[in-house]
Amino acid sequence: MGHDTSFSRQLAARLAPYIGDFNAQMWIKSVARRELGLAPEDLTVKHLPPLIDGLRPFLQTLMGRSTADNLLQQIGREVH
Amino acid sequence: MRFRFLAAFPLLYALIFLAIAWSLQGGEMLAPFTFWQRILVRVLAVAGCLAAVSCFERGDHLRSAWLWLGAGTIVILIRDLLRLSPGFAPQGADPQAQLVVTALGILSNLALLGGVWMLARSWKMAAIVLPGGRSGFGVVAVFTAVLALTVAGPGAYIHLQEVARGDWSSLVLVVSAIVDIITLCLITPLLLTAISLRGGLFAWPWGLVTASQLAWLLYDIAAGLRPGLLPTGLPLPEVFRGLAENYLFAAGMAQYFVIDQVRQAARAPVLRPAAEG
């Protein structure tokens, strides 16, 4: 995928148990481009809030709003 | 382990059902046995759908999907139970009772279609990348559409002709066949979503819903076989109906367990990768 830097990989690793590794990487790639205009390898911890906001609607579809919000908060704490 | 058991349960049930049905050798006990096991699998399917509904909140996309699936199954369960009353029996002479049975059949089909439709479009809402890209999706879609038309198309045409001749009791069969064609076509996004999510917990509910739809496809094929083609005492359509309903039960339970695991992970002091089972 070409985005093996640690931050995007950390984020993908936390999503992969739920949506699979492939989708986790594609989601981060897509949100990074759409929300920040960045490639995954350029992501750093300061980009976390917009990334979390970008991922929110995808996760809310699959697991409902409150569960998705709680999981994203937890991921935010984990990678911060 | 829990998810693997859910995936194996419908197959195990089908084997036990077949063994009992075969041992009855087409005797007079076969019909009541078949009927009551049908009620059992419908009740299980309702329980699975309600379990899935319970893990979402009002306004959540998948809550609505599971609600529609549960409602459709409850309505068809009511219709089956009504059939126990002589007026509502398939050979009943009361036209109003038959109209009620027909209406319940149509309502159930439409509700189930609504539920499958909502599940099938989740991949787009969740921006899930389907394997094979657009061309892969197209190939699978064309294949399933041809299969759906081959399996359910002739039945739809025959029943449409019956309605045209004034036999309105065939209307439910027309609607059912058309709904079958559409739902079978929806196997494509369900299957590709399950494949795309592989390695993740959410692959389980999608995979099991896909298995349910594939079992309905097999049911349609078995139900369309000419009478006498199958040995007496082998109610093949009932086997596939049981598989379809039990896979819906398994999918609903898998949905419940997956959400439960996500909630546990979100509450944990240190995030651990969610492990299966």
Description:
Chain A is an all-alpha fold. Chain A has one domain (2-78). Helix content of chain A is 76%, strand content 0%. Chain A is built from 4 helices and no strands. In chain A, helix 1 packs across helix 2. In chain A, 45% of the residues are buried. Chain B has one domain (2-266). Helices cover 76% and strands 0% of the residues of chain B. The longest helix of chain B has 32 residues, at 133-164. Classes of the chains: A mainly alpha (80), B mainly alpha (277). The interface between A and B is medium-sized, with 32 and 35 residues.
For the residues shown, what is the average pLDDT of chain B? 89
Number of helices of chain A: 4
Structural class of chain A: mainly alpha
Cα distance spanning the termini of chain A: 23 Å
Estimated helix fraction of chain B: over 70%
SSE inventory with pairings:
The complex is a heterodimer of chains A (80) and B (277).
Chain A: H1 6-19, H2 21-36, H3 48-63, H4 65-79
Helix pairs in contact in A: 1-2, 2-3, 3-4
Chain B: H1 2-24, H2 30-54, H3 61-82, H4 95-120, H5 122-125, H6 133-164, H7 171-185, H8 187-196, H9 203-223, H10 236-267
Helix pairs in contact in B: 1-10, 2-3, 2-10, 3-4, 4-7, 6-7, 6-8, 8-9, 9-10
